[in-house]
Amino acid sequence: MGISIRQKFWFTTVFVVVVGLAIGTILGELRSRWLELGVFGWLFIGTYLMARVKCSNCGTPVVYQGKIGSIPLVAGFVRKRCQKCDFDLTQRTIA
Description:
With 95 residues, the chain is mainly alpha-helical. It has helices at residues 5-28, 33-51, and strands at 64-68, 71-74.
């Protein structure tokens, strides 16, 4: 029995937050520019990791919310159904 794509997204989000807090704690003791660089870099890495969770039907990132003009809008929340192909993202998968 597998997990759903939504659960995979939330596990990824929790991982990003917990590791980000650990990095912030470690770099915060240095009290230097390393903390700022670490937080800024981790925001980019976290965004990348969350965007890698994709719909198993069409491959669209689950945080994709549509387009504003020609610019794709990617937000930090996930819907229950894929925005592009209407696939049920709460459905459990085998792998």
